[in-house]
Amino acid sequence: MWARRVRLDCRGLPSPNVWYVMRNLGRRSNRKQLSFVVVAGMVMAMFAATMPATAATSAAAATSVRTGGDTSAEKPMTEEDARKALDAAKKVKRSQGVRGARQVVPGRHVSGRPDATIALTDLWNAKDSLGRSSKAAARELLRRPKALTQTCSDVICVHYTPGKGGDKASVAYAKQVRDVVTKVHKLYVKAGYRKPAADKAVTPGKVDIYLQNLYDEGYYGYCAPETKVSQKAATAYCVLDNDYAASEYGSSNTPTENLRVTAAHEYFHAVQFAYDAGEDRWMMESTATWAEDEVYDSINDNRQYLAYGQLEDQRKPMDNSSPSNLGIYGNWIFFRYLSEKFTKKRGDLPAVILGIWNRTPSTYSTTAIRQALAERGTTLKREYVRFAAANLAPSKTYSEGRAYYPPVHDGRKVLPAKRQTVGGKFTLKHLTYASQRLVPKKVGKGWKLRVKVDVARTNANAAVVSVFRTDGTRGVYHLKPNRKGIATKTIKSFSSKRIRKVEVTFANASSNFKCGQGTAFTCHGTASPDRATHRWWAKTYR
Q: What domain of life does the native source organism fall in (predicted)?
């Protein structure tokens, strides 16, 4: 990440996370810079019942599109890919010569700098495919930091070297970290999440946290997987800064606030590793960014990433985990949408996100989301188009929406008081949406607006019309296309005095994937199908 802290996110892809590379890094003004075998039996039956396939359902198609569970269709990692993971991880560790000039300057992001947690996690997953000499380099990069002493609670231990300067930390600060992380741990466990898997060697049965001067490396914190405890789960250790001094990290937040949100974010990664250390990076980062705001709601550090997620950049696939895409942090807004709609809690956290993570050991992100939503009587298609509509009016649809960025649109047409028909089209990639804005100009009484849409592949795509009135109210109309994908909506009083604007929104919720294709999307795959072209027409008449 770069607007925030640089939390070394132990994943594996050189993602932009740099967990929060300095807090003020990318604000709204920089928005444009960013951005198997199918499981048989019950899993397939569940899938078919809860989410219509987005591709042809022939036997050939079924064997190439992953719907969850079986990982046998994944291509084995090549040594070349593993070396790329190693090269990315080298960029985040000062032991590889990075320690020269500072990697992070307040308000700036170093282009190409990988997120630490992601880079280290990807390296951990790739290490067995490396050659002998490269394996030694990987072991060094994944090695824990050194510390002279520790302070422990009943669930975690904080390791540090007492003193001032360098990587040293004060005794009082180490105890503060211990208390903060312990609180975070217990909150997650109370909410039903798995406990991070603890190592059996350093402090048996407890999770280890290390304190170092991470500012010189350009990060706020990171976690890394360490030892496998099942086919997919792993133990973890985390590293946090040794003081979060305002002289280094700025004054947007206090040192304590930086510690709290970084601990909540990074420790959620340790929780995630207890489910699946190879889970899709976009969901790992989006839900970790969501979690920090749930744990420390008043700090609101995650708002800065909204400029890069689908609240502002809806044409970039929500599951895009490429290194240049800060949207994986900004897309916490999707999980906020789900948790504000499905409000039932377990402990102090919304249970819907727990429902998603409980499914990740046997599947990938989008399937886990579909299954969790099916349990709640809905579908990803239905919720994704509603999410798109919600983002057109964040102040009206989110509890803290007045503090979010204003909505954006992809097209705008002004319609004067005359009979006319206008139209256009949007070609959308998977998990993206787009809106056409229609604005009446000097239109008096008696005029009407008829909107017609042609929705491609209605099993995975949808359209909605939102009417914004001058009195501040809003009407949202979810269209029901016929077999040919055609649907219409008539606004009977399309006058300038009554209507401020009409938004026509299309959403592509395609979420089946052919996995192992080397992409930055879900399961490193390609959506099947991916692109869809939608058309719209608008007619003014009286």
A: Bacteria
Residue 15 near residue 121 (C-beta atoms within 8 A): no
Residue 169: both structure tokens together: 């930390």
**Between residues 106 and 315, which one has the greater pLDDT?**
315
Question: What letter would DSSP give residue 78?
Answer: P
235: confidence class by pLDDT, cuts 50, 70, 90: very high
Tell me the C-alpha distance between 227 and 239, whole Å: 17
In this model, does residue 279 exceed pLDDT 80?
yes
pLDDT (0 to 100) of residue 62: 32
- Determine the residue type at 454: D
Q: Are 31 and 135 in contact (CB under 8 A)?
A: no
Give yes or no for residue 101 having a pLDDT over 50: no
pLDDT tens across 418-440, in order?
999 999 999 999 999 999 999 99
The residue type of 354 is: L
CA-closest candidate to residue 373, choices 384, 364, 389: 384
Q: Each residue of 66-86: pLDDT tens digit?
A: 444 344 345 667 888 888 888
Phi-psi region of 237 (alpha: psi -120 to 50; beta: other; left: phi over 0): beta
Dihedral sign (CA 483, 341, 35, 528): negative
Supply the pLDDT for residue 200.
85
Please name the residue ranges forming H helices in 204-310: 246-249, 255-273, 281-295
Q: What is the pLDDT of residue 110?
A: 36
> What are the angstrom distances between the C-alpha of 130 and each of 14, 29, 72, 79, 272?
17, 41, 21, 5, 25
DSSP 8-state symbol, 307: G
pLDDT in tens, 492-519: 999 999 999 999 999 999 999 999 998 9
Residue 77 main-chain phi, psi, to 5 deg: -70, 130
Query: Do the beta carbons of residue 444 and residue 496 sit within 8 Å?
Result: yes
End-to-end, the C-alpha distance of the chain in Å comes to 52
For residue 261, which of 201, 224, 305 has the smallest C-alpha distance? 305
What is the CATH architecture of 411-541?
Answer: Sandwich (2.60)
Residue with tokens 């996110």: 9
Dihedral (Cα; 398, 400, 403, 407), 10-degree rounding: 0
Q: Is the peptide bond before 196 cis (omega within 30 degrees of 0)?
A: no
CATH 2.60.120.510 boundaries in the chain: 411-541
Would you state the pLDDT for residue 459?
94
Residue 408 pLDDT > 80, yes or no? yes
Burial class (CB within 10 angstroms; exposed 0-12, middle 13-18, buried 19+) of 146? exposed
Residue 484 carries which DSSP code? Answer: T
Q: How many CB atoms lie within 10 A of CB 74?
A: 17
Give me the DSSP letters along 371-428.
Answer: HHHHHTT--HHHHHHHHHHHTT-HHHHSTTGGGSPPP--SEEEEEESS-EEEEEEEEE
